[in-house]
Design a protein that fits this description.
The complex is a heterodimer of chains A (110) and B (115).
Chain A (H helix, E strand, L loop, with lengths): L3 E4 L2 E5 L4 E7 L5 E7 L6 E6 L5 E4 L2 E5 L5 E6 L8 E8 L6 E2 L3 E6 L1
Parallel strand pairs in A: 2-11
Antiparallel strand pairs in A: 1-3, 3-8, 4-5, 4-9, 6-7, 7-8, 9-10, 9-11
Chain B lengths: L4 E3 L2 E4 L5 E6 L6 E7 L6 E7 L2 E4 L8 E5 L5 E5 L8 E8 L9 E2 L3 E5 L1
Parallel strand pairs in B: 2-11
Antiparallel strand pairs in B: 1-3, 3-8, 4-5, 4-9, 5-6, 7-8, 9-10, 9-11
The chains are: A mainly beta (110), B mainly beta (115).
């Protein structure tokens, strides 16, 4: 079945450093969503990518969908302590359900 | 608008006991999801409803788990009997439509501990 993997599993950065998490699907995706889950909280939707090669920005966050629509990345510029949490990608391969990735847990050291 | 409501927030039971979780989605949302999130992992879809019909329950352990969505609104998820490996957070989410281009709104979750 479809699998969605993310790397790295954990990342510790100093405040102000950049951070990137990568998401890879075993199958071609129709679209991909990104969620953020704060410690002890629930996933909160960040963005959805649909088109091959699509790049979207939200303030310090940049999201990219690969040309082959099998991978995606999330890049955070100049991390802040408020960026702490686990970032999940969730891929849809044309069915009605999303498969969540394994997540990347980000810690930001002040 | 009010978010997705879930209860209880925490539950501790012994193995072989039964437990039920309740979810009230955002008003007007046609699609409702139940996910299981084991510590350190991503959410795993257990069952997906469109109104009161089941769209996908391929990963629901049907020998012990059951779910229903009453009148296309509230939903309950039941585990009977519980096993140690069922310890997890059970997340309910809803979205406006079934077409998979809408974001999912998650509730706060129910943290289940099976001892």
């Amino acid at each position: 079945g479809q699998q969605v993997m993310q790397i790295p599993q954990y990342q510790h950065v100093q405040e102000g450093e950049d951070f990137t998490t990568y998401c890879n699907s075993s199958t071609t995706l129709s679209n991909i969503q990104w969620y953020k889950q704060r410690p002890g909280g629930h996933p909160v939707f960040l963005i959805q990518l649909v088109k091959s090669g699509e790049v979207k920005k939200q303030k310090r966050l940049t999201f990219q969908f690969g040309e082959a629509k099998k991978n995606s990345s999330l890049h955070i510029t100049a991390t802040q302590t408020t960026d702490v949490g686990t970032y999940f990608c969730a891929g849809n391969s044309g069915t009605y359900k999303y498969i969540f990735g394994t997540g990347t847990r980000l810690k930001v050291l002040a | 608008e009010a978010g997705v409501a879930q209860s209880p927030r925490y539950k501790i039971i012994e193995k072989r006991q039964s437990v039920a979780f309740w979810c009230n989605p955002i008003s007007g949302h046609a699609t409702l999801y139940w996910y299981q999130q084991i510590l350190g992992q991503g959410p795993k879809l257990l069952i997906q409803f469109q109104n009161n019909g089941v769209v996908d329950d391929s990963q629901l352990p049907k020998d012990r788990f059951s779910a229903e969505r009453l009148k296309g609104v509230d939903s309950t998820l039941k585990i009977q009997p519980a096993k140690l490996e069922d310890s997890a957070v059970y997340l309910c989410a809803s979205s406006p439509q079934q077409v998979p281009t809408y974001e999912q709104y998650f509730g706060p979750g129910t943290r289940l501990t099976v001892t």
